[in-house]
Specification:
The complex is a heterodimer of chains A (310) and B (288). Chain A has helices spanning 2-19, 23-48, 56-72, 77-100, 106-125, 134-138, 142-165, 167-177, 179-184, 189-214, 226-239, 245-262, 268-283, 291-309, and strands at 129-130, 218-219. With 310 residues, chain A is mainly α. Chain A has a domain at 23-225. In chain A, strands 1-2 form a two-stranded antiparallel sheet. In chain A, helix 2 packs across helix 11 (226-239) and helix 3 (56-72) packs antiparallel against helix 4. The longest helix of chain A has 26 residues, at 23-48. Chain A starts with a helix and ends with a helix. The radius of gyration of chain B is 19 Å and the shape is globular. Chain B is mainly α. Chain B has a two-stranded antiparallel ribbon. Chain B is built from 12 helices and 2 strands; from the N terminus they run H-H-H-H-E-E-H-H-H-H-H-H-H-H. In chain B, helix 2 (36-52) runs parallel beside helix 4 and helix 6 (164-174) packs across helix 8. The longest helix of chain B is centred in the first third of the chain and has 28 residues, at 2-29. Classes of the chains: A mainly alpha (310), B mainly alpha (288). At the A-B interface, helix 4, helix 5, helix 11 and helix 13 of A face helix 4, helix 10 and helix 12 of B.
Chain lengths: 310, 288
């Protein structure tokens, strides 16, 4: 039943551009795909590995920057997109691994600082907006972008799904649950944390690559903006951390809210999401997805209690 | 060159006092409060309103201190009190996440109320400076801020070493369990330290307010503070003073050599380098 629904959903997403011709809806879908890939990649690191990154925007941005620069210099997108991902993973290797050697608080702060360095450097070095050349502009159409984005979404979801169920994935989850105990039974913690970091940042770089491929013209520092770093944990937590479906649900809600309020109240969706985020961290650590089971559990508890009392 | 150094030292004192608030919370209870910068900016708005009523920014510091202290206590009771009994690693992570949400709420709420325009408090003495000797100017506001910062750091030092309650807070920071066995009310120590930490934000509130502020700069000031905390060694409250001066001077010197746009980057790059080369901070003493 579940599998059938999934296949139906994928078929629906593949056939969507054939039915819907609206550029607005298709580009909204691409934005959703970007959010989903970014959140899923954050989830691998923050949810499954337990390393909260507050600077995922840096990896997203590097992916976008590398892809964009290669692509407008006439390297085919299918080559420059993975190269962007590799660029992001390289940056992670240089900065992230030293952070891993230290106590838990260093990694979030280190990544936050990294994303600020990246933002400031890029906005100082690349001052003009990166517009496309006339040839590229002429050949611009939304379908190839839609399908490429869809492909990356499926790729990242499958990668994470199979990774966390494999042997290295189990090691990664064991490290999250208790790093010292994991090390004591012979898991090479640094190795597996690095594996998770590199996979996660590679996927974040791919998400950045789609952003670079989708937009006709943008300032080079736009994908480095701190909001990218912040939306990934927000959407993941609100949907449900350490699940595959959580980031998707969270991203959907986030995008829907931002579209509703975009015209009237600007950034108010971040305010609402920030508020929900606090509530979820405090009272519902499983996110929206766990709401049903949690309420059922509560009701059952109450019934039991009532029985005992009577 | 002397001039550059002087500016560096004055800025460094401002960084130290921001870092002190963050370090106090981290050192005593292993909470990481990302919203510290945003709370400082809230204080700046408060100071701006008081200034419009004709109250001098430096006079408004005590008012801000009391209101921020109360705000800190309310925030602790509402948001942070659930984590008191958790183990250290979880406490860091949970408090980080909650304060991250709080930061988003404060920043975006402030943008809704006061728009994202840059504001600044401008009393008659803003921008004034006096010439100490030929070619060496000292800005009035910077000097007053620096003196205040030193006074507060001294007062805090006396509080921690001379008063009974201060000593009990230090005891909690060293070993909460042992402290509670000796009859220290750990939760109250946490509550007061958190309130004190937010209350210390009143001085940077006014100093930042006298420069320029908008809802989005909170995270930047937090970043400055946390860099200083980490340079000084995470958990080492006294490390923030030399570390703040170090960062301020290095930044000032880098402006002298590379120009203003790269000032922020130098600080951050030094931070990452220190993180890689001296993981326990430049002045850290506490082993992991």
């Amino acid at each position: 039943m579940k599998k059938l629904l999934l296949i139906l959903l994928i078929v629906f997403l593949i056939s969507l551009p054939l039915v819907v011709k609206s550029q607005y809806i298709l580009s909204l879908m691409i934005t959703l795909f970007i959010y989903v890939v970014l959140a899923e990649s954050w989830n691998l690191l923050g949810g499954y590995t337990g390393q909260v990154s507050l600077g995922h925007g840096a990896f997203f941005g590097v992916g976008a920057l590398v892809t964009r620069l290669l692509w407008i210099n006439k390297i085919p997108i299918l080559l420059s997109l993975p190269l962007g991902g590799i660029g992001a993973a390289l940056l992670a290797a240089i900065v992230g691994i030293p952070c891993f050697r230290m106590r838990s608080a260093y990694f979030p702060i280190g990544t936050l600082a990294l994303s600020m360095i990246a933002l400031l450097t890029v906005s100082n070095v690349f001052i003009s907006a990166g517009a496309l050349s006339p040839q590229l502009l002429k050949s611009y159409e939304i379908f190839s972008r839609y399908y490429l984005a869809l492909f990356i979404v499926l790729l990242s979801i499958l990668t994470i799904h199979y990774l966390v169920r494999s042997r290295p994935g189990l090691a990664i989850v064991a490290i999250r649950d208790n790093e010292k105990a994991a090390a004591a039974i012979g898991i090479k913690t640094l190795k597996y944390k690095t594996l998770a970091l590199l996979t996660s940042t590679f996927l974040a770089g791919l998400a950045g690559g789609i952003y670079a491929y989708q937009h006709v013209s943008y300032y080079y520092d736009a994908p480095f903006d701190l909001t990218w770093s912040f939306t990934a944990p927000l959407t993941t937590f609100i949907g449900g951390i350490s699940t595959i479906a959580g980031p998707i649900v969270g991203s959907l809600c986030f995008l829907a809210l931002s579209e509703i309020f975009a015209v009237t109240l600007g950034q108010v969706h971040v305010l609402i999401f920030g508020f929900c985020f606090i509530l979820i961290v405090l009272f519902l650590p499983g996110g929206l997805l766990s709401m049903k089971t949690e309420t059922l559990k509560n009701i059952r508890k109450r019934i039991e209690k009532a029985k005992v009392d009577s | 060159m002397f001039q550059t150094l002087a500016y560096g030292i004055l800025n460094g004192l401002l960084y130290s006092i921001i870092a002190l608030g963050i370090s106090l919370v981290f050192g005593v209870m292993r909470y990481l409060n990302i919203a510290h910068g945003s709370l400082i900016i809230l204080g700046s708005y408060g100071s701006l309103y008081l200034f419009r009523f004709g109250i001098d920014p430096f006079v408004s510091i005590p008012i801000l201190m009391i209101s921020l202290f109360l705000a800190g206590i309310a925030l602790f009771e509402l948001l942070y009190s659930n984590f008191v009994d958790l183990v250290e690693g979880l406490r860091v992570q949970k408090s980080l996440l909650v304060s991250f949400g709080l930061m988003l709420v404060i920043d975006n709420g402030a943008t809704l109320i006061w728009t994202s325009d840059e504001k600044s408090i401008t009393p008659f003495y803003s921008g004034m400076s006096f010439e100490l000797f030929k070619g060496f100017h000292v800005p009035v506001i910077g000097l007053a801020g620096g003196v205040l910062a030193i006074l507060v750091i001294l007062a805090l030092h006396l509080f921690f070493t001379r008063t009974y309650f201060g000593k009990s807070v230090i005891a909690v920071s060293q070993d909460p369990e042992a402290a509670s066995l000796m009859g220290v009310n750990v939760k109250r120590a946490f509550l007061i330290s958190f309130g004190l930490s937010v209350c210390l934000g009143a001085i940077p509130s006014v100093l930042v307010g006298l420069q320029a502020f908008s809802p989005s700069v909170g995270i930047q000031w937090f970043n400055k503070g946390i860099i200083v905390v980490m340079l000084g060694g995470l958990g080492n409250i006294y490390g923030v003073f030399p570390a703040g001066l170090f960062l301020g001077i290095v930044e000032a010197v880098s402006v002298f050599f590379f120009g203003a746009p790269y000032r922020e980057i130098t600080g951050l790059v030094i931070f990452v380098l220190v993180l890689i080369l001296f993981p326990r901070g430049l002045f850290g003493k506490i082993p992991e």
